Amino acid sequence: MAIEQAVITWIHLVASAIWVGGSLFIAMVFAPVLKTMSSSVEDRLQIMIKVGRRFNKVAVPSLVILIATGIFNAHQMLIRPDFLFSTSYGVLLVIKIIFVVGLLAAFGVHVRIIRRDVEQKITAKQLSDSQITKLRTKIIIVGQVTVILSVAILFMAALLDAGI
Ligand code: HEM
User: Fold this and answer.
1) Predicted pLDDT at 72
2) CA of 70 to the centre of ligand 1 (A)
3) Distance 157 CA to ligand 1 centre (A)
4) What is the per-residue pLDDT for 91?
5) How confident is the model over 88-116, as pLDDT tens digits?
6) All structural domains of the chain with their residue ranges
7) Looking at ligand 1, which atom is closest to the CA of residue 149?
8) CA of 72 to the centre of ligand 1 (A)
């Protein structure tokens, strides 16, 4: 049914807006503003972790919804592996799914780096300056990979939509 398809696409788009929009906001607005604050590196890291954890409460369900509605959108293709590899639509879809798997991996690493025990060590100021610097660098790199992959997935969606 057309209306059913429209609702699924709408949910996919809203979840995509929350996930990608929220990630970009953190990377391009929140992180630069936080950097200008005069508080210590530990305090800034803690603020970023708090914001990240709060964002995850909406971001993780959005990602789950994206994958579920994405699979629904693609199920006609996914049950026909011959189409998947013989049409440009199918190949673009496979690339999109590979990017999504990469995104899940990057996000998993991101969450693992900032485990509760690591957060507690930061709060208790048990980490040396060099450990804090290393941790920050890792978080920033994995965070950037997550954002770049998310934007690349949008490009794949645009290619699929254009029927290239
Ligand atoms: C971070 C994850 C994802 C994001 C940000 C995302 C984003 C989008 C956006 C913005 C659209 C455009 C809506 C449209 O024109 O129909 C779209 C369409 C679509 N997405 Fe996703 N998506 C994600 C994950 C997935 C996954 C995991 C799948 C499949 C397993 C998938 C399959 C599709 C399909 C088949 C379309 C329809 C394309 C078309 O023919 O127009 N998406 N996606």
Assistant:
1) 94
2) 5
3) 5
4) 94
5) 999 999 999 999 999 999 999 999 998 88
6) 2-162
7) 1
8) 10
